[in-house]
Amino acid sequence: MPENAASAAERLHAVLTTLRTTLRTTLDTQISTAPSVREEHSHGEAMNASCLPAAVVFAESTEDVSAVLRACHAQRVPVVAFGAGTSVEGHVVPPEHAISLDLSRMTGILAVNAEDLDCRVQAGLTRQSLNAQIRDTGLFFPVDPGGEATLGGMCATRASGTAAVRYGTMKENVLGLTVVLATGEIIQTGGRVRKSSTGYDLTSLFVGSEGTLGIITEVQLKLHGRPEILSAAVCQFENLHDAVQTAMEIIQCGIPINRVELMDPVQMQASIQFSKLEGYRPLTTLFFEFAGAPAAVQEQVNATEALVEANNGLGFAWAESAEDRSRLWKARHDAFWAAKALDPQARVISTDCIVPISRLGTLIDGVYEDIKASGLRAPLLGHVGDGNFHTLIITEDTPEGHAQAWELDKKIVARALALEGSCSGEHGVGMGKLDFLETEHGAGALSVMRALKNTMDPHHILNPGKLLPTGPVYQG
Ligand SMILES: Cc1cc2nc3c(=O)[nH]c(=O)nc-3n(C[C@H](O)[C@H](O)[C@H](O)COP(=O)(O)OP(=O)(O)OC[C@H]3O[C@@H](n4cnc5c(N)ncnc54)[C@H](O)[C@@H]3O)c2cc1C
Fold first, then answer.
1. What CA–CA distance (Å, rounded) separates 94 from 167?
2. CB 3.0–4.6 Å: which of 64, 165, 207, 320 could bond 385 by disulfide?
3. CA of 309 relative to ligand 1 center, distance in Å
4. Alpha-carbon torsion 169, 365, 401, 276, what sign?
5. What CA–CA distance (Å, rounded) separates 289 from 467?
């Protein structure tokens, strides 16, 4: 074993010894070096990268997280926060001799302030569990990524979902945080108020920081009133441009639509098969949801129907019952698994581009050319109301297959960036998007980000190698 690897192993051993002796008596059930547990924490979804953590520590409180980071900071041992592991850009893949710090046991709801429409939760709670538990209050939390993600992980990736077009992303829905810094120090950011003009916005700094600046243990969230009625419809189009034009006009006209999602014919074919959607054809399809008081919903529906008609839509099919509606949205959330089912032996790699909505049609035209030239199958779907879409590149699960998919991804991202877009609307950077950051942000902005990282995590123990490519650091 090389000398530096031996010393890394010794430092890790020192951390585990410290944790076993200084933490709570239940800690034995909180530290695992079992191969199966390490394997579960060695990778996220979709990406090929993986590396076994040396140990997995299951935190049960903010104090546990603080103790782990104090020990790791002292011994320079890397720590990777792990929520549910649903991220898709290699975010949770640990470096060698690292600890994976699993927050999924921290599932408490600490406060629900129904009259102020906010709540405070522990970071390991999932949004599905939060919504089930606060159902009786008439409130809900709207950010809905497809996976069964934790709210801490969603903060860390600045996640969004189908409802972002109406309610915004995690960025707009987090009021404050409890964060454990690299040294183990615990801080509070933000608060309960809807706005404040004091100080630097540390909450926004941690939202989207992918576990590289601190570990989030509690989240203060905005809640929203459940709408009086919900109404969902599907409209198919012979031509993808007509569908994109319809979505664009809905947003430009200011129709407060709850969701508007696109599937192209290849994705629609996959979802019809996988989710047993009856009565639909493999055509470009828009899924709509309208919400509000009955009169307001009717107004939105009328305005949307007029736009659909003007853009050659083939008419609305309504999902009348709650069951039909949830079947439709489940089919949308299961789109990744539907694409995977097209070839169960293959790997599915999701791209995630966003452009100003008026450029979406131009981008998709170019992406189709790239898909055709690649010879790969790549269903396309998107949160089209935000200008954000994914291609699910289906490729052979071999190094050559991955390289081919990566080439296609690079071309798609280059097109989005050339149209003043971003290489990720919602999935984040992790390891997968590192190469694009300089083009997107510029060298100067990246050097400031590196200076921030160095200040907050001087020994680079927090999720090293993610979010920031190496390079010059702003010196002032
Ligand atoms: C089928 C499918 C559909 C998806 N659809 C969407 C979608 O529509 N929109 C979307 O945004 N994403 C989507 N995703 C991606 C994924 O669900 C999100 O990135 C999600 O926010 C990750 O949450 P998690 O709890 O699984 O975090 P993890 O995967 O466990 O972690 C993600 C990152 O956050 C860090 N982290 C985790 N917890 C904490 C914490 N408490 N404090 C600090 N850092 C932490 C980790 O170190 C890592 O860098 C989808 C994924 C799948 C598999």
1. 33
2. 165
3. 38
4. positive
5. 34
